[in-house]
Structure formats: C-alpha cells, structure tokens
C-alpha cells in the first residue's frame, strides 16, 4: 500500500496528542489578538457573555459534529461529505470550507508576521520612551511598508509548511505537544503580572461586569462569527483533525475539553491585557491595534516590561503557529486525497498559493490601500467574508447535516465508539444541532446582513 492510500491513513497517536492538536488549532490569534480587541470595541463583559452563550449552545455541538463527520468518514473536508452523502450537493459544504481555509490563512499569516517583527522590536527594546503617538505611527508605518511585513509573513508561512510537511504524527501532533504547554506557561506569567499591577481591578470590572445597554446587533454578529473563528469551526479544520482521531477516543469529552481550553485561554488573554491597559489609563477600545500599539505602550511603562513584551509576542507567534498548521492541513488533506498527490507536493503547493494571496493582503495595508470593495481593503474583506459569512454558513450546513440528514441512529453509533452514550445528553445534542444552532445562526446572520432588525 502506498503511504497515500486511505488504509494507512495518518492518525494521532495519543489522547493528549488529539487535545493538544485540536486545542492548538483553536487557540490562536483569535484568542490573543482578536478576542481582546473586539471585546474592547463592543463594550466588554456584555459581549463576553453573549460570546459564552454562543460557545456553549452553538460552538460545542458543532465542534462535536465536525469531529463525528471527520472520524466517521476518515476523509478531508470535501471528501467527507462526498463519502457520507454520495451523489448529493453536500460536498459543496466541504468546498466552502477549503475556500475559507485559503482565505483565512492568507491574512492570518500577515498578522503572525507582524507578531514576529514585534518579538524583534521587543528584544531590541524599540518601544522604550516612545509616546503613544510614536508607537501608533511605528505600527502603521511598519504594516504599510511593501517589504519587511512580507518577509515576515513568508517566513511564518515557511515555518507552518515545515511542520505540516512532516506529517500528522511527527509534525502536527509532536509540535502541538511541545508548543501548547509553553503557551499556557507564558499566559499564566503574563496574568500574574497584570493582576498584580495597581489599578488592575478596573480592567477586571470591564471584562466581567456586563452592561447590556452597550450591546449592538453588530456586536452579536461579531460574537457569533468569533465563536466560530476561535473554535476553528465551520470550515472543516476539525473534520480534518477528526479524521485522524482513533475509534477509542471519546469524541464528546474531547470536544468539551477543547472548547473549555479555548474559552479559558481567551479569558486569560483578556485578564493579561485589560487590567494592564486600565492600570496605565489607556482606552481599551482601540481595535486591531490593541496588541500592537496599546500594549507596547503598557509594556514600556510596566516594571519588567522589556521581558514581558518579549514573552507576549512570543506567545502570540506560538499561538498563531499551532493554528496555522491546522488551517494549512485542511487544504493539504484536500489536495492529497482529491488530487491524489503526495503530502510533500501538496504542502508546497498549498503553502505557495496561500502565501501569494497573503502577499496581496499585506500590500493592501499600504500600497494597495485605496483598492477597496464595500469600503474594505483586501485584508479586511477576506477577514470579514470568512469569519462573518463563510464560517457561520459552514457551521449552519454542518449542523443541518448532522441533525437532519444523518439522524440519531448514526450519530449514536459513531459517538458510542470509545464512550458510553448517555441518552438524554444525546437528545440535548441532537436538539441543539437540529434547531438551536441553525436557527440562531440564521437569525444572527440575516440580521448581520441587514435583512431585518431586532
Ligand atoms: N481558531 C484559530 C484562532 O483562534 C483560527 C482558526 C480559524 C483556525 C479557523 C482554524 C480554522 O486564532
């Protein structure tokens, strides 16, 4: 049998490996860069509470659905639907996923590249004695350059490629097991620093005391989009990873653990950031620049800031890497199985294609800034289409597929592998994927598109 054949398909070798890889995918720029800034923009705790609701009622059941589809089919995102629903249009859901993976990794690599640059800026103490305005223009001038950000973006894509090309067990699983503990350690160190600052309390209040009057319809759509983005849902990442999970694994337990880990780390990132931001009297709602402009300002005033800023940007880069490998693997698995090519070629091909689109994302910050569609530059457009449209749409179809097309018997049969199925829990799961998840996604989605108001 050739290495590419399905009977010798890649597998994760341990329970811990499955969790490290899947949590590694979930925990990324979404948790550390995006979650704190959108929480800041949409008013803090009220946004957090809506987000938590979406995670529990929609995110968790869809994660379990993706794992189930993946393990049952033992195929890439597109092949999975082809196999489980032969001759039907369901395979386009997989197609949508591969397209989303392409888009997300293109801009993801750019932000990860900025993060590498900020490790270097931290090591060379470049934030010292700079005014907030100087730090602002330092960031803006950097991302608008046509050269350096692209060099870092391409370096990051090469790092991602280097891991994925090795394979599932010795690449993805092994590096996730090394990098995830480092990530957790760094975030805990940063948390202790933040909450021991004078004036930290105000930041914690901002994060945990909700003021629902601040919540907007747009905030609710962003909370939903972000729940998908943060848990790596709606585009087949966890279908692909699920296809490498062995039959002895308890899928429901794994989904729960990964969801809890991702959510906890997002909150811990908020706890590392908001108390520090408030302690130095800075505005929390600064948008995408929060970690690249506001935080350097915090670090240069904070005792030990030189050291903590290196740690922070290292954290951001590591988190991005364990996620980017999972996004690349969606495309690689698709290329391998659908185009029947070897992992090595598939990885090089996918990386090259995505990196090229990424170059345009990077250029859209400066040189191509004026080229906009719906008022968004290329980078923001890919971010918006993928997170707010493709992922929720993918999630909608995945939940409909499991809830309506597959039905209770098949779900029970797959979930019973490696676990005892508790009948009422199964009923709750089916109710959520059948009605709650699709209903909520449809409402929030249509509202976000301005179809109606509530
Ligand atoms: N979940 C990752 C993050 O939070 C991003 C991601 C999205 C990864 C979609 C895979 C699929 O940064």
Describe the structure.
With 454 residues, the chain is mainly alpha-helical. The chain is globular, with a radius of gyration of 21 Å. The chain has helices at 15-26, 29-41, 45-73, 77-84, 91-123, 132-144, 148-164, 168-195, 200-208, 217-230, 237-242, 251-279, 290-301, 305-338, 343-363, 378-415, 423-448. Residues 25-26, 28-31, 104, 229-230, 232, 235, 237, 323, 326-327 line the site of phenylalanine. The site of phenylalanine has 15 residues, from helix 1, helix 2, helix 10 and helix 14.
Order of helices and strands: HHHHHHHHHHHHHHHHH
- Biggest pleated-sheet summary: none
Shape: globular
> Approximately what portion of the residues adopt beta-strand conformation?
under 5%
Low-confidence stretches: 1-7
Q: Which cofactors or ions or other ligands sit in this model?
A: phenylalanine
* Class of secondary structure makeup: mainly alpha
Instruction: Return Rg in Å.
Output: 21 Å
- The level of helicity is over 70%
Number of helices: 17
Q: How far apart lie the N and C ends?
A: 58 Å
Q: Give the beta-strand count.
A: 0
Whole-number average pLDDT?
Answer: 89
């Amino acid at each position: 049998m050739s290495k590419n054949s399905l009977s010798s398909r890649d597998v994760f070798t341990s329970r811990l490996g499955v969790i490290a890889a899947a949590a590694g995918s979930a925990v990324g720029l979404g948790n550390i860069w995006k979650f704190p800034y959108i929480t800041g923009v949409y008013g803090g705790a009220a946004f957090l509470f809506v987000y938590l609701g979406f995670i529990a009622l929609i995110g968790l059941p869809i994660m379990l659905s993706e794992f189930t589809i993946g393990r049952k089919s033992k195929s890439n995102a597109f092949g999975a639907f082809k196999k489980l629903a032969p001759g039907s249009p369901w395979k386009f859901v997989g197609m949508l996923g591969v397209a989303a993976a392409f888009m997300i990794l293109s801009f993801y690599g750019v932000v990860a590249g900025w993060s590498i640059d900020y490790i270097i800026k931290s090591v060379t103490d470049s934030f010292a004695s700079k005014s907030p305005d100087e730090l602002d223009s330092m960031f803006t001038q950097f991302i608008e350059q046509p050269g350096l950000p692209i060099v870092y973006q391409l370096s990051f894509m090469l790092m991602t490629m280097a891991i994925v090309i090795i394979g599932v067990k010795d690449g993805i699983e092994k590096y996730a097991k090394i990098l995830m503990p480092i990530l957790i350690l760094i975030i805990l160190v940063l948390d202790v620093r933040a909450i021991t600052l004078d004036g930290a309390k105000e930041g914690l209040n901002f994060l945990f005391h909700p003021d629902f009057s601040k919540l907007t319809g747009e905030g609710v759509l962003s909370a939903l989009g972000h729940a998908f983005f943060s848990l790596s849902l709606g585009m087949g990442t966890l279908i692909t990873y699920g296809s490498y999970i062995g039959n002895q694994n308890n899928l429901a337990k794994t989904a729960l653990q990964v969801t809890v880990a991702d959510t906890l780390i997002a909150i811990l990132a908020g706890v590392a950031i908001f108390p520090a931001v408030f302690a130095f009297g800075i505005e929390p709602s600064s948008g995408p620049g929060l970690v690249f402009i506001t935080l350097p300002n915090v670090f240069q005033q904070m005792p030990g800031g030189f050291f903590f800023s290196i740690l922070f940007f290292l954290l951001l880069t590591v988190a991005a890497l364990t996620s980017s490998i999972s996004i690349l693997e969606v495309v690689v698995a698709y290329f391998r199985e659908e185009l029947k090519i070897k992992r090595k070629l598939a990885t090089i091909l996918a990386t090259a294609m995505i990196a090229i689109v990424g170059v345009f994302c990077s250029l859209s910050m400066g040189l191509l800034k004026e080229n906009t569609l719906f008022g968004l530059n290329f980078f923001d457009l890919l971010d918006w289409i993928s997170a707010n449209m493709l992922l929720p749409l993918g999630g909608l179809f995945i939940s409909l597929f499991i809830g309506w097309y597959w039905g209770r018997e098949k779900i029970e049969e797959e979930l019973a592998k490696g676990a005892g199925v508790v009948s009422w829990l199964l009923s709750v799961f089916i109710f959520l994927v059948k009605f709650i998840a699709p209903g909520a996604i449809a409402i929030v989605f249509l509202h976000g598109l301005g179809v109606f108001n509530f």
